[in-house]
């Protein structure tokens, strides 16, 4: 059995190495979607679904097709095509099953394709030599960390929207500064591994 | 249903087929182009990677020892695959070994470690010659200090840099642990996790080499004679 | 618009990072040093310019239904080329940029320009648009990277600037510094735009 146990992987992915506050992945949708709590949660769940499924498909592609046939250089193309197809699939499913969420997410749903967190995590799985099980847990936990960050942020922004902020800071700049403060707070989780 | 039946299937067939054909052509051209670029850069990439490996291996092996980084052996410990490089003396005998290992327990996860062990003819006296961090994503200013001063091989010049804490340490579980965990390796300020990750990987590799010395020597001999295993 | 105007817009008025707010992921991650910032910026510029060119040349031949997957394959191809070339000839930069090289493929700037511009304009204009946006991206990265490197590390392009006594403000090279630094930079841009509009 590999050395890092699964609970540690989950804790690390959500808190210690949060995908947004520590690895800097998934910023675009993070800043765009996190204005309302309800959309933030829906987006988070969509990302959990896509990220876990993306890992479920890309890991075997790397290990069973790309590596044995010395086609490692096709990783970027194959991974992103898998992700784009998955997102299309999720769109179709959501449109049929939960049309209200589909409407609420709007353009941010197809934008999950360009969410660096999804492709990033798929590649991290390979780079850090995770096993299939570890990779699946890691991607699900990373997506949950992403959702957590999104929800905290939306909560803060909902309150911030009614406060007065210097006009040059309004919108994205103040959002980034709040994100910075949150990142600082998350750095406090550093000792958790012990 | 006003259109004549015989033209309708043809229209929808084409409209479905064309996008697929376009994608297939684009993907095939892309794959072909990439294969060409891969061939063109193959040698340069291999040379760059080899130079990188060689730098790490030469730093961790004792001074004056010969090594051929193209002749490697491998071994497995706790599900981890380690790469071994033989350090030979002037008579061609294998006196030391460089081990490429890693830890997943760094603060930011993966830490690649190169560590040397000698002398191989006396397992009881097996010591760490040196460590060299190959790759990491640790926090700048804190865990990233595990690489400080490591391009230099002079302990005097590097003071209490991270790598010097492992130099010439015996492969012993009582020694190769972080001081907070009962060992003798001084933890980096505010970077106990990074320290612990590297120390763990070093101890694991060292004990494996000590226990499996005979088999490892045999594999390395075979590698030197007949190329990589 | 003239070619020059197409080029210049990406640099300032419609700077992808500071005004359009695109491509933010790498901005935060690779700006711990000015060298990495420029390396990433120029790599992305290459991909953006080339993919804009190819998309524009093929714009009449790509059916609408598959335009996104087609753009993605084209962009991913150039990203992979950059990855291999950097690994072969600029090994240390490749190591520093690491994960963010393949992530260029999901840089919203590149897909965004392919969709918004290259698929509707001539090859020459598309290349120029790509070049302008790419260099604007590089500029933003460079500014943030310089600030973070000087304040957080006391160096510039790896050369130590200050004497022994200077204690770098560590937070600048850490995640919080990245977010806050970029926030102030964008606010600064907003301020300059406002003054220009009023003055």
Briefly, what is this?
The complex is a heterotrimer of chains A (194), B (229) and C (199). Chain A is mainly α.
Question: What are the SSEs and their pairings?
Answer:
The complex is a heterotrimer of chains A (194), B (229) and C (199).
Chain A: H1 6-16, H2 27-33, H3 37-66, H4 75-97, H5 99-105, H6 116-127, H7 132-160, H8 172-187
Chain B: H1 8-60, E1 72-77, E2 80-88, E3 94-106, E4 109-118, E5 127-135, H2 155-158, H3 192-211, H4 213-226
Antiparallel strand pairs in B: 1-2, 2-3, 3-4, 4-5
Chain C: H1 3-11, H2 24-29, H3 34-57, H4 67-89, H5 91-97, H6 108-116, H7 123-153, E1 155-156, E2 159-160, H8 175-198
Antiparallel strand pairs in C: 1-2
Helix pairs in contact in C: 1-7, 3-4, 3-6, 3-7, 4-5, 4-6
Give an overview of the whole structure:
The complex is a heterotrimer of chains A (194), B (229) and C (199). Chain A is mainly alpha-helical and 194 residues long. Chain A has helices spanning 6-16, 27-33, 37-66, 75-97, 99-105, 116-127, 132-160, 172-187. In chain A, helix 1 (6-16) runs parallel beside helix 7, helix 3 crosses helix 4 and helix 4 packs across helix 5 (99-105). The longest helix of chain A is centred in the N-terminal third of the chain and has 30 residues, at 37-66. Chain A is globular. The two termini of chain A are 21 Å apart. In chain B, strands 1-2-3-4-5 form a 5-stranded antiparallel sheet, with helices on both faces. Chain B has helices at 8-60, 155-158, 192-211, 213-226, and strands at residues 72-77, 80-88, 94-106, 109-118, 127-135. Chain B is built from 4 helices and 5 strands; from the N terminus they run H-E-E-E-E-E-H-H-H. The model of chain B has no long low-confidence stretch (mean pLDDT 85). In chain B, strand 2 (80-88) and strand 3 (94-106) form a beta hairpin. Chain B is an alpha+beta fold and 229 residues long. Chain C has 199 residues and is mostly helical. Chain C has 8 helices and 2 strands; from the N terminus they run αααααααββα. In chain C, strands 1-2 form a two-stranded antiparallel sheet. In chain C, a hairpin with a 2-residue loop joins strand 1 and strand 2 (159-160). In chain C, helix 1 (3-11) runs parallel beside helix 7. Chain C starts with a helix and ends with a helix. Chains A and C meet through helix 2, helix 4, helix 6 and helix 8 of A and helix 2, helix 4 and helix 8 of C.
């Amino acid at each position: 059995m590999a050395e890092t146990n699964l609970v540690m992987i989950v804790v690390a992915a959500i808190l210690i190495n949060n995908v947004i506050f520590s690895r800097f992945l998934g910023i675009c949708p993070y800043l765009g979607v996190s204005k309302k709590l309800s959309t933030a949660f829906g987006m988070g769940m969509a990302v959990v679904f896509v990220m876990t499924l993306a890992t479920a498909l890309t890991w075997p592609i790397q290990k069973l097709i790309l590596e044995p046939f010395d086609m490692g250089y096709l990783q970027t193309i194959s991974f992103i095509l898998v992700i784009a197809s998955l997102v299309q699939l999720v769109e179709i499913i959501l449109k049929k099953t939960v049309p209200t969420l589909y409407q609420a997410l709007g353009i941010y749903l197809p934008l999950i394709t360009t969410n660096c967190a999804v492709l990033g995590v798929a590649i991290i799985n390979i780079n850090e030599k995770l096993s299939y099980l570890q990779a699946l847990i890691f991607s699900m936990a990373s997506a949950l960390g992403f959702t957590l960050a999104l929800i905290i942020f939306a909560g803060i922004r909902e309150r911030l929207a009614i406060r007065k902020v210097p006009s040059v800071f309004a919108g994205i700049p103040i959002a980034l500064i709040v994100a910075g403060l949150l990142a600082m707070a998350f750095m406090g989780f550093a000792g958790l591994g012990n | 249903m006003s259109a004549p039946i015989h033209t309708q299937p043809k229209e929808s067939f084409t409209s479905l087929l064309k996008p697929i054909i376009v994608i297939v052509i684009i993907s095939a051209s892309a794959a072909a182009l990439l294969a060409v670029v891969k061939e063109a850069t193959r040698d340069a990439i291999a040379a760059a990677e080899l130079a990188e490996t060689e730098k790490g291996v030469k730093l961790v092996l004792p001074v004056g020892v010969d090594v051929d980084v193209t002749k490697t052996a491998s071994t497995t410990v706790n599900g981890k695959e380690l790469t071994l490089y033989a350090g030979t003396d002037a008579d061609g005998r294998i006196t030391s070994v460089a081990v490429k290992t890693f830890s997943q327990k760094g603060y930011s996860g993966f830490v690649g470690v190169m560590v040397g062990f000698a002398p191989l003819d006396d397992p009881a006296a097996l010591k760490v010659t040196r460590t060299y961090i190959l790759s990491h994503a640790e926090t700048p200013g804190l865990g990233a200090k595990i690489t400080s001063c490591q391009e230099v091989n002079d302990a005097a010049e590097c003071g209490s840099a991270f790598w010097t804490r492992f130099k010439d340490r015996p492969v012993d579980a009582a020694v190769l642990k972080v001081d907070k965990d009962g060992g003798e390796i001084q933890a980096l300020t505010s970077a106990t996790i990074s320290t612990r990750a590297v120390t763990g990987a070093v101890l694991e590799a060292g004990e494996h080499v000590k226990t499996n010395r005979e088999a490892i020597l045999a594999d390395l001999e075979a590698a030197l004679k007949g190329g990589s295993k | 618009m003239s070619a020059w105007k197409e080029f210049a817009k990406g640099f300032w008025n419609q700077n992808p990072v500071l005004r359009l707010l695109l491509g933010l992921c790498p901005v935060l991650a690779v700006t711990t040093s000015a060298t990495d910032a420029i390396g990433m910026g120029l790599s992305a510029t290459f991909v953006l310019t080339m993919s804009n060119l190819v998309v524009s040349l093929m714009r009449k031949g790509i059916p609408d239904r598959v335009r996104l997957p087609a753009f993605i394959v084209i962009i991913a191809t150039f990203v992979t080329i950059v990855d291999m070339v950097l690994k072969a000839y600029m090994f240390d930069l490749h190591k520093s940029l690491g994960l963010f090289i393949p992530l260029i493929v999901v840089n919203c700037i590149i897909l965004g320009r392919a969709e918004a511009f290259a698929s509707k304009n001539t090859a020459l204009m598309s290349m120029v648009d790509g070049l302008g946006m790419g260099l604007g991206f590089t500029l933003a990265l460079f500014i943030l990277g310089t600030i973070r490197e000087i304040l957080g590390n006391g160096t510039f392009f790896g050369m130590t600037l200050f004497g022994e006594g200077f204690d770098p403000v560590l937070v600048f090279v850490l995640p919080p510094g990245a977010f806050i630094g970029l926030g102030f930079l964008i606010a600064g841009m907003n301020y300059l735009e406002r003054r220009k509009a009023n003055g």
